[in-house]
Design the sequence.
């Protein structure tokens, strides 16, 4: 048997090369795994409530963050992300910061260490940052979320009273009728928002866009009535957790809570408007149960920090809704349903009931309106139409007024 000059037979050398190649592949694979994930997208959602920054990536990452409070320099939030390279996608974050962002002045990105990317966020005011990760869900892969909450958030009731006073001083403002015992407050809740688009129509229409547009129209109509005032759980494209929506309504001492949505179903021929109230004893139909489950998943899609221990939200007694609240919600829902049938076919002729988390205010009559099926191409087209949005808002307002005509609100301290 012949020998190679540098030792070993040909077969032995082949085995060595094969083994070496395997070792090389393993080494490369180990390096890639150690390096981390690929960044897929960066998104920024500025709002008065808070600003959210989202980094979406295809694998889990480790991270740390800290605040820099140096009087000689701007206040900064620093986030170090292990296993992330300084890619063009990450650099896009710099250009996504808008001048009118309430909390972020600018963002800088850099490679802090060979496998660590650093985000430096200069702030316009002091914040309470929440930095957390989300597992893949719905259309998203892994997400790193930076929620920047103000240390001194605005008081929602005070803001509402100031807005009411400002409207009253306008030249075309109408005086309060003398026979009105007190002004009633309506909380409008445009469903979904921000990271949570809601249902998406075949034509690409987002539910979150439609609900906000109808919500804005309804707000202006209510605000024009001297007997009513109005607050919105969101007035822009940002995510609001379900419990926070309820907390906002209670903070302004709302008399009613109206959540606006646009239905979706697996079949494109499903159509019609629906109204839902809370249920104490299970859903009134399998469709209602499905709808509640879908809407309750909004927190998973939008992304909530499960580690948060916000005491204010903990005080919201979501599981103590009373029979009286549900009965009033059914009355409100029926009044609105009777008006909706004037402008659209009803999907169900009665108010449906299920365990919607957003309707669990223990002391506020609350309904959820599915304005139409966004999954139906014909109804999607109507939902995008300005005229239809206007008619929908007017129908909801007419239903609210019909309810109050039969169920006047209780007297309250004049100061509130």
Sequence:
């Amino acid at each position: 048997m012949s020998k190679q000059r540098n030792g070993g037979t040909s077969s032995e050398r082949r085995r060595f090369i094969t083994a070496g190649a395997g070792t090389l592949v393993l080494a490369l694979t180990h390096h890639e795994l150690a390096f981390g994930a690929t960044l897929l997208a960066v998104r920024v959602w500025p709002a008065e409530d808070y600003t959210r920054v989202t980094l979406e990536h295809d694998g889990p990452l480790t991270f740390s963050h800290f605040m820099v409070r140096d009087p000689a320099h701007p206040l900064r939030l620093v986030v170090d992300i292990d296993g992330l390279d300084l890619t063009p996608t990450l650099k896009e974050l710099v250009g996504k910061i808008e001048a009118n962002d309430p909390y972020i002045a600018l963002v800088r990105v850099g490679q802090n260490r060979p496998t660590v990317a650093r985000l430096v966020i200069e702030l316009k005011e002091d914040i309470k940052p929440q930095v957390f990760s989300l597992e893949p869900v719905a259309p998203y892969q892994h997400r790193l979320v930076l929620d920047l909450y103000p240390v001194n958030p605005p008081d929602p009731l005070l803001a509402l009273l100031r807005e009411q006073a400002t409207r009253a001083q306008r030249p075309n403002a109408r005086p309060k009728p003398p026979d009105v015992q007190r002004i009633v407050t309506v909380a409008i809740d445009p469903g979904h928002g921000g990271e949570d688009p809601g249902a998406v129509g075949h034509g690409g229409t987002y539910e979150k866009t439609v609900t906000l547009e109808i919500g804005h129209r309804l707000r202006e109509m209510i605000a024009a009535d001297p007997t009513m005032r109005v607050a919105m759980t969101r007035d822009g494209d940002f995510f609001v957790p379900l419990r926070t929506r309820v907390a906002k309504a209670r903070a302004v001492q709302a008399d009613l809570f109206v959540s606006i949505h646009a239905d979706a179903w697996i079949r494109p021929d499903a159509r019609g408007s629906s109204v839902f109230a809370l249920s104490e004893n299970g859903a009134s139909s399998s469709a209602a149960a499905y709808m509640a489950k879908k809407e309750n998943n909004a927190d998973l899609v939008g992304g909530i920090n499960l580690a948060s221990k916000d005491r204010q939200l903990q005080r919201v007694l979501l599981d103590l809704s009373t029979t009286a609240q549900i009965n009033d919600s059914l009355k409100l829902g029926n009044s609105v349903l009777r008006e909706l049938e004037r402008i659209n076919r009803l999907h169900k002729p009665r108010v449906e009931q299920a365990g919607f988390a957003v309707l669990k205010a223990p002391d506020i009559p609350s309904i959820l309106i599915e304005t139409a099926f966004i999954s139906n191409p014909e109804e999607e087209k109507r939902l995008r139409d300005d005229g239809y949005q206007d008619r929908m808002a007017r129908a909801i307002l007419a239903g609210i007024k019909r309810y109050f005509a039969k169920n006047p609100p209780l007297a309250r301290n004049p100061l509130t």
